Amino acid sequence: MSTIYQATASAPVNIAVIKYWGKRDTKLILPTNSSLSVTLDQDHLRSTTTSRADPSFERDQLWLNGKEDEIKAVGRLATCISEMKRLRKEYEIKTQMNQRYSFPQFHIASYNNFPTAAGLASSASGFAALVASLAQLYTLPASPSTLSLIARQGSGSACRSLFGGFVAWQMGSDPSGNDSLAVQVAPQEHWPQMHALICVVSDDKKGTSSTSGMQRTVETSPLLQHRIKYVVPERMEKISKAILERDFDTFAKITMADSNQFHAVALDTEPPIFYMNDVSRAIIALIVEYNRLSVEAGKGYKAAYTYDAGPNAVIYALEENIKEIVQLIVSYFPQRSGEFKDVLGLFGASSTDL
Ligand code: PMV
């Protein structure tokens, strides 16, 4: 009887405050700018992946939320799997290990503990969990940054989900992609007061995928060129400093400015891309007014909105203000006509606190 080798790993979703938008190499997924994100709480919004290897398996197979999904021969999933196999081979050669663990084929099952249709990116947590589970199965002593090089080739933003807390994806400059990896700016414990609220405005599938949207933006937007060269490098430095100094005012200003510029770049694309809707814009107006009143009262910024490639708002705020913000949002957007689906609190504040 043969032994079955199996390993399970999980990874959370991350939400960028400096947005990644644009690839300089579409095959290796090398970005046109560095980015920075916050990895969300340990329990909510996670992907959990179990990989199994058995000599009797005839081919690699994948099940997503219990349903088999095709592994396309030249797709990103196949790339990640073959990169992990290559890493294992290198490790065997380096350690002069015999090849009894060199499993030829995998069966992989991945689950998201949040609805895949919730309009929240599951590819980041999904690819991070996949790479982490294969690393565990292969007993690779690889650092999260090394694994981020492989997760990046599944979905760019996935490289940041290999760390908790505040994470930078350094764009790198090497054409091989070997320096385009994730590093931790600070662990979650450094600033535990930081919370995130996710306001699910719509769970519709987004109209323009990030892959095709980015490609169109790179090809047509003059504003993107300005952003890459003159805006992002300075913002990366300033927001990293703000995180290290727990300076919420600066963190909030940069986060909102970067979300605005990402959506401006989408609008600057030919033909234009619109990811936000009227409810998204109404939430922006509410947060702007809320901050204005707070600054006037001498209390500084209290909330920072950010939007990815869709209409759902993520609001970063310190724990002491979360309750007030949730009440504010719920009073302005009572859940009506499917327009405003859910307010899900993370980093401790749960939807039951509403
Ligand atoms: O990794 P992708 O292809 O899902 O792209 C993510 C792009 C944004 O979510 C809009 C920004 C980001 O940095 O996560």
UniProtKB/TrEMBL annotation:
Q: Which Gene3D superfamilies match?
A: 3.30.230.10, GHMP kinase, C-terminal domain
Where is each Mvd1 C-terminal domain found? 196-354
Q: Where does the Diphosphomevalonate decarboxylase-like N-terminal domain start and stop, copy by copy? A: 11-182
Give the record's pathway: Isoprenoid biosynthesis; isopentenyl diphosphate biosynthesis via mevalonate pathway; isopentenyl diphosphate from (R)-mevalonate: step 3/3
Which reaction(s) does its UniProt entry say it catalyses?
(R)-5-diphosphomevalonate + ATP = isopentenyl diphosphate + ADP + phosphate + CO2
Q: Which example biological process does GO assign this protein?
A: isopentenyl diphosphate biosynthetic process, mevalonate pathway
User: What parts of the sequence cross the membrane?
Assistant: none
Q: Which InterPro entries match?
A: GHMP_kinase_C_sf (IPR036554), Mev_decarb (IPR005935), Mev_diP_decarb (IPR029765), MVD-like_N (IPR053859), Mvd1_C (IPR041431), Ribosomal_Su5_D2-typ_SF (IPR020568), Ribsml_uS5_D2-typ_fold_subgr (IPR014721)
Q: Which UniProt keywords apply?
A: ATP-binding, Lipid biosynthesis, Lipid metabolism, Lyase, Nucleotide-binding, Steroid biosynthesis, Steroid metabolism, Sterol biosynthesis, Sterol metabolism
Which cellular components does GO assign to this protein? cytosol
Query: Which enzyme class, named as a word?
Result: lyase
Record's keyword annotation contains ATP-binding: yes
Q: Tell me its EC number(s), please.
A: 4.1.1.33
GO molecular-function terms, A-Z: ATP binding; diphosphomevalonate decarboxylase activity
- Family indicated by similarity: Belongs to the diphosphomevalonate decarboxylase family.
For this entry, the protein name equals Diphosphomevalonate decarboxylase
- Species of provenance: Gymnopilus junonius
